[in-house]
Amino acid sequence: MTVAAESVTSLVQSVDWAAIAPPTIVAAAALVCLVADLFLDDRRKPLLGAVAITGLLASVVALVPLRQGDRSTFCLTGNPEVCSYTADHFTLVIQFLVLGGALLTALLSLTDTRDKLPAGEFWFLLLSSAAGAALLPASRDLATLVVALEVASLPAFALVGLRRGDRLSSESALKFFLSSVTATAVTLLGVSFVYAATGTLHLTQIAAGLEDVPGQLDTLAKAGVALTLVGFAFKTAAVPFHFWVPDTYVGAPLPIAGYLSVVGKAVGFTGLILVTVIAFPGYADIWGPALAVLAALTMTAGNVAALRQSADRAYSAVRLLAWSSVGQAGYLLVPIAAAAYSSDDQIGATVAYALMYAVVNLGAFAVASVVARTRPLNRISDYRGLYATRPLTALALSFFLLCLAGLPPGIIGLFAKVMVFSAAVDAGLGWLAVVMGVNVVIALYYYLKWTAVLFRAPHAAEAREPVPTEAVEPARRRVPAPVTAAVVLTAVAGVVLSGYPQLVLRFAANSLF
Fold it and tell me: What's the predicted TM-score (pTM) here?
C-alpha cells in the first residue's frame, strides 16, 4: 500500500499558476463574455468590450512578475527538466506582442461591436484566439503546440466571416478556413511521423531522438520534419502558401485584418522557430536552405504584387497592406534560415523585426479604419488630400509607411532591417541579403507613392462612390475615441522606438532560448 501511495503521489504535479496566468486570464475573460452575453440586453452589450479590454490589460500586467524568464510547469515527473510549458524570455516577448496586438484590435473594434458586429460572439472569439496565441510561445511539446495553434486559428475563421449577410466576408472566411485546415492536416501528419520516429512529443527530447534515428526510420523522420515545416509555412503565408491572404484581409473587418497581419503572423513564426531551432536542429541542413529559398520567394512575390496595386481599385489600400505583409513575412524568415548556418542568436533579429512590424502595421490598419468610416471602398486614391482634412492622421500614416519602408524618421524600421541583413550576412547567405536589398528598393517605391498621395491637394470635384447617409452625419464623421487611442498609441510607440531603438534590441537579445 505504501509503494502504491508513493507511486500515485509521484504522478501529482504542482501547477505554477503565475507562469500560466497570461493565457489563463484571457481565456477566463472569454468565458465571462460568452456567459454574460446571455443575460445582457442590447443596451448593456458595450460592457462586454470593457470586460475584454480589462482582461487583456490584466494579462499584460501578469507578464511583469515573469520578467526573469525562468519559470516552467507541467513537467515530466520522471524528468523535471522536460516541461510542456516554459515562460522564458522568448515566451514573454512574444506574449507581450500577441496580447498588445489583441488589445489594440479590441480598441479598434469597440465601435463596430455596437452597430455592425454581434458583440458577444466577437469578444469571445477574439479573446479565445488571443489565449491560444499567448499559449503557443510557451509550448514545449508538439501536442500543446498544435492545440495552441488551432485555438488561435479556429476563432479567426469565424471572426473573418462575422459580418452576416456580407458575401465578400463569407467567401474570405471560406478561403481562410480551407487553407488553414489543409495546413493543420499537413502539420498533424508531420507530427505523427516525428513521433513515430522518436517516440516523444517534447521538443528537447525530439532533438535528441532525431540524432540517433534507426536507419529504417530515417526516411520517416525526414518526411515528418518536411511536412511539419510545410504546415507552418501555410500559417506564415510563405510563398507558395500565401494565396489566401489578400482576399481574407479584404473580406474581414479591418481590425481583424490588422489582427491577422500581426498576431496571426506571430503565431506562425513562433511555431516555426520552436520546431526548427529547438526540435529539429539536427536537420538544419534540410530546413535551412528550404527556409532561405522560401524567404526569397515570399519577399519577392509580396513586394511585386503590392507594386502592381492600382490606386483606383476597390479596397486597393487593404490589398496593398496585405501584399506588404507577405513581403514582410519574407524578411521575418531570413533570420530563422540564418540560424541553420550559424547559431540561435539570429532568432533575436526575427523577434526585433516582429515587434517593429506589429506596432507600425497595426497603426496603418488603425488609420485605414479611420478612412473607411467615410470611404468604405478604401482605395489608395481615397487617401488623396488626407493631410488637408486630417493632418495628424496623415502624419501618423506617413510615419507608419516610412517605418515599413525603413526610412527616416522611421528609424526603428531601418534598425530592424539592418539586423535582418546582418543575420543573413553573418550566416554566409550573401545571395539572400542581395535579394532582400532588391526587395527593399521595390518596397520603397510603393510605400513612398502612397505617402505622397496623402499630401497632394484634394480634387475640387471628384466622382466618388455613394456614401451611406449615416457616414456623412457629423457624429459619424468624428473619429471614435477608441480608434483615436489606437492610432495615438501606435504612433507614440513607433516614435519612442525610433528614438530609442536599443529598447527593441534589448528585447531581442533577451528573447534567446
Answer: 0.89
